[in-house]
Amino acid sequence: MIIPRRRRRREKRDPELILNFVREQVVVYERQVQVALEDYMEHRTTRELLEELVREGELASSVEEHYVGGGKRKIRWFYLPNADEEELETAKRTKLILMGFYTGYERTFMYEGMRYDDYAEYLVERAFLKAGYRVVGKSTNYFNGKRYTKKDVDLDFIVYSPSGHFIGVEVKNRLDYPELKDIVNFLDITSFLGLKPLFIARFMPKKYIMDIIEAGGYVVITKRYFLRPGVPRPIFDALIRIGIPLGVYNRPPKFLVRRLEQAIEYFEQKDP
Hints:
By secondary structure, the protein is an alpha/beta fold. The chain has 2 domains: 89 residues, Winged helix-like DNA-binding domain superfamily/Winged helix DNA-binding domain (Arc Repressor Mutant, subunit A), CATH 1.10.10; 162 residues, Trna Endonuclease, Chain: A, domain 1 (3-Layer(aba) Sandwich). 41% of the residues lie in helices and 25% in strands. The strands form 5 sheets. Strands 6-9-10-11-12 form a 5-stranded mixed sheet, with helices on both faces. Strands 1-3-2 form a 3-stranded antiparallel sheet. Strands 4-5 form a two-stranded antiparallel ribbon. Strand 10, helix 6 and strand 11 form a beta-alpha-beta unit. The radius of gyration is 20 Å and the shape is elongated.
């Protein structure tokens, strides 16, 4: 099932959306449902509705331990109470194969001797260059004679915008939301270094977006889980069908370049 993506204006707290998705998928796991329905409701709401549906007997649930993506993990499954056992087990095996593929997929990337912790960072850097920015720092906590000293906190990039602004950039390419501490640390380091904040994420709650905007920053939501090229087409199609929004690109997608161009316009208007 491919869930149509839409721009969410108001959260739709509708358990029927979840039930319909489970009927289509036979069996689901929490992260799958959260991501597939995130244009309609936030991840926390999805978790709450899953729990409600289990309490009310609309869904059944079980926790199993599996080796997935190179490690052992507990997975909580959700399915209809009257689900056919054979069909259920077949669907679980398929989901485990797909989950193991994307959780175990190589994230790092090397290009011209430069190591990127996540392939998304490579795509973002290329997109910056296409949009007319100049990259002046990578994986750094230092700018203009000042060093931010909080442990394990730095910026993925510092860029100079055609708008005339120096911008601190954080890239979060993950299926779950960035953590609150990620936002707090990001705003703290950009403020300390005197940089405009630009946060790039696959998806994040509206509150986090507003926190960054209120701090004078800009947010780019990609809605894609970027993976480096090499994903077999059948696996790619199967992940899309279960609601995992992969984005596999050899070069930065046009939508990403355009959003970074819009950021230039935004900062020009905010601070001409």
